[in-house]
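G.,

No rush on this.
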Amino acid sequence: MRSSQLKALADRGQLTPEDLVRRDGLDGWRPASKVEGLFETPKSSPLPADRTKGESAGRTAGGPVVFEQVGPADRSPERVPDDGDDPAGTVDAEAPADAGPGPVAAAFSGGGRLATGLSVVGGFVGDVLTPLGPINGYLAAAAACGMVVSAFAYWRLRPTDRSRWERLFPQQAIVFCTVSLAGFGFWLVAEQLADDDRGVVADHVAAVAAVQNSLLDLQGKVDDVKSDTVAILGETRRIGAGIEELGDLGGLLKDPSTPAEYYHNARVHALEGSFGEAFDDYARYVEFNQAFVDPLADYADLLRVQRGHVAARRELAGLATRFPENPAVRLAAAELEERAERVSRLERLRTDVPDFAPASLALADAYSAAGQADRSGVDADREREYLAQFLEAADAGEVHRWYLDKQRAIAAVKDARGRATAAAGPGGGLVTKTRVFLGDRGREVWVMDPAVVAIEYTFDPNIADDPPGADGWRETADLVRTIVLARGPLEDVPADEPGWDGMIYVRFRDERGQWGPVYPLDFYEARRAHEEHMRKTFGPSGAPHVPEVPEIPKMPSIPSFP
């Protein structure tokens, strides 16, 4: 029987201190009075006569009564004998009732064994998946968090329960998390010390390295699928909006023979969903080697949506190799590259073909806020610069000739004008335009852009167009950067030299190493503005009024004593 039942028998007087008890499975009998906590005070009187009948409720006739000690259900049972049993031996009253495995024994049982296997297998898998991320680092962090939670729960236990390490929570949870942390931490440290950044196993087993290469290829394909899915959604919306355009275009042209006719049929096929026929018509259009922007842009979009970004880039790169003198083909191929390569190719195209206005618009797109999330003031200046170049070409009538569909040219110019107006901002760009001006009576240059890391200046207009770092340009020393601006002092300003017109030429570099345009600043105008501000603030004198401090009377001298 359980210890609680045995205690109830003792409380009712059915079990006396003189009765013998024994733990099941152990030799020896002892009086019940030796069992700790069973009797509050020793009892030596025999059972009352009127309770002898009730004693059978707690005993088994003709044999011992089995009971379990207070504690977990899996502890060894004890037996309470009656008067007919052999009283040879006594119970070991010295053994604690809650004795169980300690923390070291628990570490090699239950949670410890499970955590060891998990850390070995999981650490191996995490090491193989290292190219996808620090998997073992994440698992070690999770084990550390679990250990902290379990330790807090252990601290909240009663002192009598803390030594019972067979409990699943929190004792076994602490063991599990501690062993897991040690295992995953070992894998993580070994990965950091490995010669290859692909993990420990791949560094020694070629087959695992091959598996990792397959995983990386699969990840690349998944990324391409995600990118293509976004493009497909955008293309689907564009095609939906193109239903009205299909009505404007009319039907297919029979027996096309000119580039415009093939382009017309390709657009109709694409809007109808006949992509095979659309590709055929675009292929026939390309053979004419026409320098129109819109057909090639549509062809590239259709390739990217239907065959993937990589296939589109490969196709346009082949066309650029076949027609290296065609600026429209070079533009379409450059637009499929990553941003850095795209900007580089567009800059070369703009240099090679200065009157090719669509390249300026593409560069403005690359430097726009949509083209990069963390752009600097240099990027904003370059966007405005390229938009201005494109609009200048539009005003000169040099844009429409690069578009086969003239409505596309009109829409491009209209969009560029709207962007240029928004980039200027109200009041000449007080909000969005980078502001460069002189402060401290013209002795400092201030740039309202926290991304600026260097400022150069010169007083010579003859070298204002020289590249950064050229002779005659100086870099401000002791540059101060705040969360809203960067400022630096100007040294050796020739304010009193005859013949100097007062112009200071300034440019700056951002955190990505990009140099902004040259800003001409008027030193004398800045000084006049400063003096006017001081007069308005402090009156005609232009200096703050400092009240006179009355003279403090001298203290009389203290006579000296001998």
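When you get to it, here's the other one too:
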Amino acid sequence: MKHFHDRIAPPKVTSTQTLWRNFSERLIGIVVFVIGLALITSFALRIGYVKQQVETLVSADRDQGLWTATQIQVELLEFEKLTHVAKSSPDTFENEVRTDFDILYSRLSQVLEPNIAIVFYEEGVSSIPTEIIDIRDQMAAIIDLNDNLNVQELEKLASFASNANHLWKSSIGLVLQENREYKVLVRQQMVETLKSVQSQLWMAVAISAALQLLVILILILRVKYQKARNHNLKDSLTGCASRAGLQYALKNSFNRTKSGFSVAVVDVNNLKMVNDKFGHKAGDLVIQSVGSALNKVSRGIDCTARIGGDEFVLLLDASVEQSELILERAREHLEKLSNTENFKKLEMQISFGVAYCPQPSQFNDAMSLADERMYRQKNAERKNKHSVIRLPPDNNIVGV
């Protein structure tokens, strides 16, 4: 059965094939990720542009500026009235005057904010009189420097508030006249921006749908490929690995072992006699039982493969001595199984040989040696049916 060996060894593959077989799922994921990242970046840039346009329009929205301007005028009038009333009883109204001035100060400070100040600009020239800010600061000085406000100080505050109110009325007159035309312009710009966003959104929906369909198609094809490959990697009779499954294990699981592994060749004894005497169904039952026994004693990344009619190959993540003990357990299990009622007429025996393999590239040499040991054991068992032959290591053992 040595003619199987060259057909079992891993075929030579190119670096491109190795990369695809080992990293195909990652490559597909990376491609999809890059495409998705490109789309997201494109949409993000577009959204950023639209956001900038909207913020520009919102910041220049005169409704907000005019509302603030109106509030400032109201606060100036209210503060002027309060200071006149407070002159009759300064101590009683002092706290109320200070609180109202804090509100007025905050309102007047808002005219310096960009989204408010832009309302009062016409051809680059501000219509806000600088005296307004000066008056605010003078009133703040009166409030802050005097612990108790008297009638004279309240008179000054009322006078400042009256002057500020007159200045403020004159500064917002031009803005009120141009408000209608500006609103029309803003609405036109908003409509154009929204149309642009709508076309971008439809494009995004179409690309996203196409990308999702592509990913689904790739996944479906991948699942079908995995099913076909898994079917090819298994032996239909025993459930063990097939020759392709053995090659797959050599190229993947056992290609990463650093301390080497053991290769075992197992052969079913007297299978031809069982087929001739009891029929091929009985022979298949024996092969299935041997495959089941070998699978039971396998551990971890171990691989049990059926490579011929009655020949099995095992890749064992263990030393030669440990592997021989593992196969002895399989032999004992089969002997016990032969004595059960269902198998009382079938005598199931196996012969095996084990050799050490430092790396997958030396698999052929290790398997040849394991095959030789298996035949030596088989011949010895024919001479003494009930003896178990333990062969000493040869000088030409691979890696031993």
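The radius of gyration is 46 Å. The longest strand covers residues 261-268.

Enjoy the weekend,
O.
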